[in-house]
Write a structure and sequence with these properties.
Length: 263
């Protein structure tokens, strides 16, 4: 996401599709080169830098488009949209584990590159923005906003929230392995987390539109943090870990559902 200012400027000058095409190229290059990696620094550059750039170039210009088409129920719409990541994560959790076990790690990277590349190309061809009508400023980095205390508070919450989000999302399968679960069980834990995401995010969208975005975001951020101490840290069994995966998946990343209204 560090490329967001650059991507925003490119999207402003050349439209939504160009940065998404660049993102596809980054993703394909990252996955393919990762499949040939034999050292950790090679994975840092391929899976870390190149795929990271690819995600930034595809996600940043596309995520704002959905809200442009809706005046009401924006949180619900964003919840349904972001819930799609849960469906994709659920499928890839089982598929990737199966590919690694029955084919190879290298080919699991390559097949993931093919599938994700095709899907993003389809999305790029279908996406339509309303920039000509709405005329958003699309500033790469507006330093004037940093003078407003409410913006500082929002950014602080977003940073801390997303730090916890990324930590939990990518460490839960490793945690499952650390307490003695098998790699198949660890993949299932990740799958249930994504299942919770697919179900929970649309529901969060509905709740945010009804009860208010700040209220729902604040309560769920507290509940998610509390569940980490009450359920995750004491967890030593498969069942408890699955329970935590479902609960945390349902309320994880509340920022993505309510961000469209905070301008």
């Amino acid at each position: 996401m560090l490329v967001a200012p650059l991507v925003t400027i490119i999207a402003r000058e050349y439209g939504t599709k160009i940065p998404m095409v660049i993102g596809v190229l980054f993703l394909l290059t990252g996955y393919i080169t990762a499949s040939f990696s034999h050292r950790i620094w090679q994975l840092y550059l391929s899976q870390g830098v190149l795929i990271g750039f690819g995600v930034g170039f595809t996600y940043v210009p596309s995520t704002v488009v959905i809200s442009q088409w809706f005046n009401k129920k924006r949180s619900l719409v964003n919840g349904i949209s972001s819930g799609g990541s849960g469906i994709g994560g659920l499928i890839f959790s089982f598929a990737t584990q199966a590919m690694i076990s029955h084919i190879s790690l290298a080919w699991s990277y390559r097949i993931t590159a093919i599938v994700s590349g095709i899907m993003i190309v389809i999305a790029t061809l279908l996406i339509r923005n309303r920039n000509e009508t709405i005329k958003p400023p699309q500033r790469g980095f507006d330093t004037r906003l940093l003078c407003r205390y409410e913006v500082i508070l929002l950014l602080s919450w977003a940073f801390i929230s997303m730090l916890g989000y990324i930590t939990l999302l990518y460490s839960l399968p490793d945690f499952a392995l650390s307490i003695g679960l098998s790699s198949t069980q660890a993949a299932t834990v990740s799958a249930f987390l994504n299942l919770g995401t697919a179900i929970g995010r649309p529901l969060i969208g509905i709740s945010s539109d009804y009860f208010g975005r700040f209220e729902v975001a604040g309560i769920l951020t507290f509940v998610c943090g509390l569940s980490c101490f009450v359920i995750w840290l004491p967890a030593m069994s498969y069942g408890v870990t699955i329970l935590f995966a479902i609960i945390s998946g349902a309320i994880l990343g509340v920022f993505w559902m309510v961000r469209s209204q905070w301008k």
